[in-house]
Model the fold of this input.
Amino acid sequence: MKKIVNSLFLSMFLYPCAGMADYVDMNHEQAYLLDIDPNNKSQVVDVIQSIFIPYYQSNYSPEELLRMKNALQYYLATNNIDFSQEYNSQLMPFDHPQNAKDFFLWIWETCFPNEHYELSIDDEYIVITHIWEDYKKIRKHPC
Done:
């Protein structure tokens, strides 16, 4: 089966907290995010479960979720992306773990328990480098 991979769909896993580094302060209702220890898996998984997953469920279509899963699987298995750069580009309210890939691995383990991210030899992955090309097809934007 052919699977389309686009780094935008990896970024979409971070959207629930994207940009918060710019506006979350100690008076904000989510100020506790500033105190997250990014190397503490338990704390990070709590954030994934309480903020990220509900956001995914209410904001993304089943097709988008599948594309996101395919992208996460591909990049975890191949390491063909700079996980640190991907994370930092979203201006998250807490740093990534010492190994930025761990954050994405924890998303995988939390969202897809008991599933392995190794690639199947039956699947063909097509990497789209124009970041918006694949997204426009799903959202059906006129531009």
